[in-house]
From TrEMBL:
Organism lineage string: Bacteria, Bacillati, Actinomycetota, Actinomycetes, Micromonosporales
Compositional bias annotation for Gly residues: 444-453
Transmembrane segments: 466-488
Protein name according to UniProt: Cell wall anchor domain-containing protein
PROSITE patterns registered for this protein in UniProt: TAT
Stretch forming the signal peptide: 1-35
Keywords in alphabetical order: Membrane, Signal, Transmembrane, Transmembrane helix
Amino acid sequence: MKLNSPLRRAAIVLAGSLIGLTGVAFVAAPASAHATEVSGSAKCDTATGTRIVTWTLTNDYDADATVSDLVTTPTPVEGLQTGLVIPQARDRQNGELVLTQKVPGDATKATVKFTSRWAVDGYTDEGNEGDVTLSGPCAPAETPCVTADKAAFHHEFGVTEEGSTATVKLDDGINLCEGEPVTLVSYFAPKPQFSVPQYAFDDDSGKITNENRSVTLNVDVPKCNTQVDLFFGDKDDIISEITENGDRYGDRKLGSSNGSGARSKGKPAWFNGGTNACQTPAVEAVSQCDGTVSLSLSNKGLTEKYAVDFTIKAGEFTKTVTVKDGKGETVVVPAGASKITVSAPGIEDVTYDWTPPADCALPSVIVENDCETVTVTVENPEGVTPATAKVTYGDKTESVTVAPGKTEKVSFKIGDAGYATVEFPGLNVEPIKATLGDADCDGGSDGGSGGGDNSDEPTLPVTGPVAGGIAGGAALLLIAGGVLFFLARRRRVTFTA
């Protein structure tokens, strides 16, 4: 049966419309499938006490999606930032991006929110938001504490002229059951090497705990020989005076090869050194007229603790004197004891020879002429050294030693010489030249004899403290010459050196 033409045309149009609408629907359907999603999960890191949140971002479309308008709480997500690309879906598998976020252990919630956009067709998805509720405690696992004998440390230690500094640190991963005290102390020392006694100068202490895992200590050092020690212990453990048989820090000093000090790694934390003595000995020598030497010994140092032992040697004379700090002692070295040497720690040896003081009394000389014999008498005053007199008359010379407070005589057979010369080796005087003068050896009038200067010979030249006296004596002798002419034939004249 044939349909009429208008009806047939209407059916054809309707069928075409249905087919077109079906094609449009098929083509448009994939656009509505653009979507990205975000989801997360969390776990506690017991090593650090933080939560690790793992975020997964997916893309169900076969084109890359770009992230924008990003918001994360309470911390950033590592690697997630504006402009990041979520890869396209492939082989019916969504594109996927996995990122992590570290969140404090006490946080209660973590969120991620963003917008995704597909550049291929400009489609935008603003509904991307995910959150993770964080519940339950999250803290580091408790590390068992260790006792002091099992703790481990490391240290640094140094000493300069300005002072000493030490730093002690608790090793990582060590949990102390209780704090560990450590002390730095400096000392006065008698020598730059280890020696005793030592006296505490300055100290500094601290305590290492789990909260305060590092301690830095500083002390001053004396401006003289010193010892510095870094040891495990507090102020109550400081040895105020280190003596010969007293206490020691021993292997408590950090850096020791054994004992508690071996728990800390580093160079040996002790020091001995210095360039100056802590005491200042001094010696002053004064010659005395009697030949002795008076030694003034003094001691003034940086500490009141140190005495100084002075050793005095002079020939067979030896003596050791201990002088306390701030004190002085006097030692008299006997006359004739040879060169003196004084030794003491901290000074070079002091040497001294006796020399006659300028103000000592000098010997006197008496010259007698009895026409047969010339007699020279030398008198030495009290309180001086023995004097050696060298007496010359004519071509004859004799020497005599005169003790203090004593006299000695030298006689010569009278000859043609009109004067006698007396020298005093070792005394700071010039020789005495005494003229004898004329004597009446036939029983007649006496023309005078002895010490007057009645010839052309030089008269009694002297130097030193007696020069003025001799010159004055010569003048008096000139005046007395006329008077002595009438005196008895025996003359007696006295000269003083």
